[in-house]
Design goal:
Two copies of one chain form a homodimer. By secondary structure, chain A is α+β, with helices and mostly antiparallel strands. The first copy, chain A, is 17% helix and 35% strand. Chain A has a domain of 95 residues: Phosphoribosyl-AMP cyclohydrolase (Ubiquitin-like (UB roll), Roll). The interface between A and B is large, with 43 and 43 residues.
């Protein structure tokens, strides 16, 4: 998706039900395979920037600032389509993920499956966190 | 999935990072098509019941009680697999959805797409809310 016009974005933002912390839940799904990659949060500025730029930008609750996915790691999410749910408090981001979504180096953050022994790891890292970030964080 | 043994569930629950309200985010995805159906919340009891029973149970924040998906509408979600994300605060529920997931009668709650005019409705109800619920709510 190329960026949407500002007027359309502002009109759409009126239908978004940000919570008492000013956030909505974002689910990133790889557009061609349907794989759910990750869940993170967006505030109004993050959603606006995502729709304007066509690159996914979240809001980091821990760092309390915009988190342009891939700005450190290079693992950007190109936005193909964004969909809002019925009560307006979750957005489905259909993306084309460069490389891996997870900070552990795995394609998806959902790499642990509940099974008869507790939790089982079902996928291994494709790259090392050191390759993604050098010495530090997301 | 048939229900998991209690011991395995309790062991897995130790890795789940419930937030300050005791909740985690749940994403329901139709297992065969990959369609993301809905996002809702689970507390510890809801997640435990989901894993024990093999039927998805959420926690309704508005009604402040367990919400056994489909108990009124008949539109149950049979659990096939549950996956936990890297930081333990979101669970991906791979389900087989009977009928529709959305209270509007649509298959998915994500039926509005951001476009150059604002928001566009991209799917229509398959059944009427009245057919699902009679006179009232979820």
């Amino acid at each position: 998706m190329v960026g949407l016009p500002s007027e359309a974005i502002e009109r759409a933002l009126e239908s978004v039900a940000f919570d008492e912390s000013g956030l909505i839940c974002g689910i990133a799904q790889q557009v061609d395979t349907g794989e759910v990659l990750m869940v993170a949060w967006l505030n109004r500025d993050a959603l606006r920037e995502t729709l304007e730029s066509g690159r996914v930008c979240y809001y980091s609750r821990s760092r309390k600032k915009l988190w342009r996915k891939g700005e450190t790691s290079g693992q950007v999410q190109r936005l193909v389509e964004a969909r809002l749910d019925c009560d307006g408090d979750a957005v489905l981001l259909l993306v084309d993920q460069s490389g891996v979504a997870c900070h552990t180096g795995r394609r998806s953050c959902f790499f642990r499956s509940f099974d008869e022994n507790g939790l089982k790891i079902i996928s291994e890292p494709e790259v090392s966190p050191e390759q993604l970030y050098g010495a530090s964080g997301h």
